[in-house]
Write a structure and sequence with these properties.
The chain has 9 helices and 29 strands. The protein has 507 residues and is of the alpha/beta class. The chain has 3 domains: 30-106, Peptidase S8 propeptide/proteinase inhibitor I9 (Alpha-Beta Plaits); 108-408, 3-Layer(aba) Sandwich (Rossmann fold), CATH 3.40.50.200; 420-504, Immunoglobulin-like. The chain starts with 6 loop residues before the first helix and ends with a strand. The strands form 8 sheets. It has a 7-stranded parallel sheet with strand order 9-10-8-12-14-16-17, sandwiched between helices. Strands 2-3-1-4-11 form a 5-stranded antiparallel sheet.
Length: 507
């Protein structure tokens, strides 16, 4: 059962919800003249132009990877007598050439200020008795924080990505500095955990998606997710939310962007929200945490007992795991120590654990990371029926799931006794759309075994190639059932094992 709230916690929730009960919370604001729309790859330029003319829309921008379009509709009703953006969205979702449509919601990155509270104590392995560190290795892992920006402070300075701090999507410049404090607080939490683990090769990148008031629009977040793909980021932390009704069957534009990033191996870590409600049952759940994205982990906040924080949203199907999120002391605006509470802080804890785990992988990918974190969750009866794992993040157990048990198969670093490399393989082109050419060193005394695995670790191809002298060429023409995304190629020849990452793009 959910724990009883203290008077102060109840008061905080009342202030947070602007005096409304959780059931009475309204839909998040959105720009009433802006439509976000994503077309099916089969849609032609004529299809797109015709629908734009039907809505009287002006195209403002297109995201570079997920191809979400931002359309401005200056007047209502449109030529088809659609009186509002909501009616336009409903109409767009009926079109076969449209994959999804939605409003440009305003999201909010916020937490609960608890400056007068005593911060819970960090220890050698984590905070408040939670074990958040595990062994690390040499693979560099980029973690992007989509938030209010990041200031360089003592706790995060060793981990800011050298030479590339990120990008400011609010002001459209290359200086994603924090003028609010929220993003810096999260980066400091990640930096603190990484320091406890012995300064592993983590690189923090700031994508400023939220302004000084803590608010940001969906389209800028989509642009940031796409940029994370282009920058080869492996983990994105999204400690913000908005409230909306579920989509009518087709994915919302932000959901599609998360899914596309997932096809490139990116893990999304999202905060469930601070409204104190069940995201499974309310009519307006919090997103993006409530999206059914396979590549996402939705994080709730727990206290030190651990029990669900009074302010934290939960949901057996829409919240995955708990992490400490109450009275977290870390550097924030102007690098001063701030004590804050929220699912935002809890999400940063999980992002840090994912980063540490990722340093142990040959190929950093959401599938083994999510598998390890959720499989390694430490069960607590207080979280029963509230979270899908009914547990709290536990880095040592997640490490075991990744490096010893099944989660990391095909992705983890090889044993030191096994010669494994990819220097003898030549892949062209990579990424590819139809045919992949592979040049490989064959053995004249034994056959070569070729295996290809998809992002979830499922084998999609196994082929035995005959013995041969010298370099040989093999071609892969993926079947239609192979969707675009990352694949792991593994080749065994004599005692040598070769691995390579290949990217299939169906466009």
């Amino acid at each position: 059962m959910k724990k009883a709230a203290s008077f102060i916690q109840v008061l905080l929730c009342i202030v947070l919800n602007f005096g409304q009960s959780t059931d009475a919370l309204s839909q998040s604001p959105f720009n009433g003249n802006t439509l976000l729309i994503r077309f099916d790859p089969s849609a032609t330029a004529t299809d797109i132009a015709n629908l734009k003319a039907q809505y009287g829309a002006v195209e403002l921008a297109v995201s570079p990877v997920s191809t979400v379009r931002k359309w401005y509709i200056p007047t209502f009703p449109t030529p088809n007598n659609l009186p509002s953006i909501n009616e336009v969205i409903k109409n767009a979702e009926t079109k076969s050439e449209v994959n999804g449509a939605g409003a440009n919601y305003e999201t909010e990155a916020f937490d609960i200020e608890t400056e007068n509270s005593t911060p819970i104590q960090w220890n050698g392995t984590g905070v408040c008795g939670f074990q958040l560190t595990c062994p690390t290795d040499q693979t560099a892992v980029k973690i992007a924080i989509l938030d209010t920006g990041i200031q360089t402070c003592s706790t995060n300075s060793n981990f800011i990505n050298p030479g590339y701090p990120g990008y400011d999507f609010v002001n459209n410049d290359a200086n994603p500095d924090d003028d609010h404090g929220h993003g810096t607080h999260l980066s400091s939490i990640i930096g603190k955990i990484a320091t406890l683990a012995g300064t592993p090769p983590l690189q923090l990148i700031s994508y400023k998606t939220h302004a000084a008031n803590g608010k940001g629009e969906i389209f800028n977040i989509i642009l940031a997710i796409d940029q994370a793909v282009l920058d080869e980021v492996k983990i994105i932390n999204m400690s913000f939310s908005y409230r909306a009704a579920p989509s009518s069957g087709k994915p919302a534009p932000l959901e599609a962007a998360i899914d596309v990033a997932g096809s490139y191996g990116v893990l999304a870590v999202s905060a469930t929200g601070n409204n104190g409600h069940d995201n499974d049952s309310v009519t307006l759940p919090n997103y993006p945490a409530s999206f059914p994205c396979a590549s996402q982990i939705a994080v709730a906040s727990v206290d030190c007992s651990p029990a669900l924080s009074t302010f934290s949203n939960w949901g057996y199907t829409r919240a995955d795991i708990g992490a400490p999120g109450e009275n977290i002391g870390a550097e924030a605006l102007n690098c001063s120590i701030a004590v804050k509470s929220g699912t935002s802080q809890a999400a940063a804890m999980v992002s840090a654990v994912a980063g540490l785990l990722g340093t142990n992988l040959n190929i950093v990918h959401w599938s083994p990371l999510k598998c390890a974190i959720l499989s390694g969750a430490q069960y607590h009866a207080s979280l029963q029926n509230l979270l899908s794992t009914e547990g709290v993040v536990h880095a040592p157990s997640a490490y075991t799931e990744l490096m010893v048990n099944a989660c990391g198969v095909g992705y983890r670093s090889p044993a030191a006794t096994t010669p494994q490399h990819n220097s003898g393989l030549e892949l062209s082109p990579n990424p590819f759309s139809q045919i992949l050419s592979l040049r490989y060193p064959a053995s004249p005394s034994s056959p070569t075994t070729l295996e290809i695995y998809d992002a979830a670790g499922k084998q999609v191809l196994r082929e035995t190639l005959p013995p041969a002298n010298g370099t040989q060429i093999w071609y892969w023409r993926p079947e239609a059932r192979c969707t675009e995304g990352i694949y792991l190629l593994r080749m065994t020849s004599n005692t040598d094992i070769y691995t390579a990452k290949v990217i299939l793009q169906r466009y």
